[in-house]
Write a structure and sequence with these properties.
Elements: H1 2-17, H2 23-49, H3 52-77
Helix pairs in contact: 2-3
């Protein structure tokens, strides 16, 4: 009986550790990160070009492309077991 209890306890522990993020969380993380990253891009473009319109055009365009890339990147990594105990 002791062996069966140990196996059951181990299975429960593994299930509790196997936490997966839901897609909504990945989406919200992508949005918050893109706001931060886009502000950085806009600032750098403005510093390099001294043109606010160019900086805003580049910054606003990369918001959408990088947000989509980040979302799919997060969804792939939510399935990778490396580093999860």
């Amino acid at each position: 009986m002791l062996i069966a209890e140990a196996i059951t306890n181990e299975k429960m522990r593994v299930q509790q550790c196997a936490v997966r993020e839901k897609p909504l969380r990945s989406l919200l993380k992508a949005i918050s990160w893109r706001i931060t990253g886009s502000l950085d891009t806009i600032l750098l473009c403005w510093l390099f070009t001294q043109n606010v319109n160019t900086a805003l055009a580049i910054g606003l365009t990369e918001v959408l492309t990088k947000m989509l890339l980040y979302y799919f990147h997060e969804r792939v990594w939510s399935r990778v077991r490396i580093g999860i105990v």
